[in-house]
Design brief:
Radius of gyration: 17 Å
Order of helices and strands: HHHHEEEEHE
Strand order of the largest sheet: 4-3-5
CATH architecture of the largest domain: Orthogonal Bundle
CATH topology of the largest domain: Arc Repressor Mutant, subunit A
CATH superfamily of the largest domain: Winged helix-like DNA-binding domain superfamily/Winged helix DNA-binding domain
Largest sheet: 3 strands, mixed
Length: about 140
């Protein structure tokens, strides 16, 4: 039932953007919702190719572009690394584990977001906040 709700949301968002829902867009969106590990387009391609061997990397890029364009997925940029994709649309930060490359969502409380917005120069407003923590997983020796 949750998948059906997501499918309806996908179809409506795509329609609102002048696009139609396709099986490929549905497949890419469902993968992003299910795994939530901020994959690159290449990683999405490799995972989907196992079950859909005829899908192309260009199709994956087009699907991701459509999902970003209609506001269902956010692109996540880390310096010169490939773009990653995140279906978490709430304002949040990311933790990038330098050892494994793993990326985790960090919930930001609303009062903290409000405080961050107060740091802007007078007369400016932010449409979004991108905050990334970089570091290492705590080990028993560090804990």
């Amino acid at each position: 039932m949750i998948a059906d709700a997501h499918s309806m949301d996908l179809s409506q968002k795509l329609a609102d953007s002048g696009l139609r829902a396709t099986p490929q867009r549905e497949l890419v969106y469902q993968l992003l919702l299910a795994e939530r590990n901020h994959p690159t387009a290449e990683e999405v391609f490799q995972r989907i190719k196992a079950s859909s061997p005829h899908i192309s990397l260009a199709t994956i890029y087009n699907c991701l572009e459509a999902l970003v364009g209609c506001g269902l997925v956010k692109p996540v940029h880390f310096e010169r690394a490939p773009t990653r994709y995140c279906p978490n649309l709430t304002e949040h930060a990311h933790f990038h584990d330098a050892d494994t490359g793993r990326i985790l969502d960090i919930d930001l409380p609303a009062p903290l977001i409000a405080e961050l917005r107060k740091l802007l120069p007078p007369g400016y407003s932010a449409d979004s906040i991108e905050l990334t923590f970089r570091g290492h997983a705590a080990t028993k020796a560090n804990a």
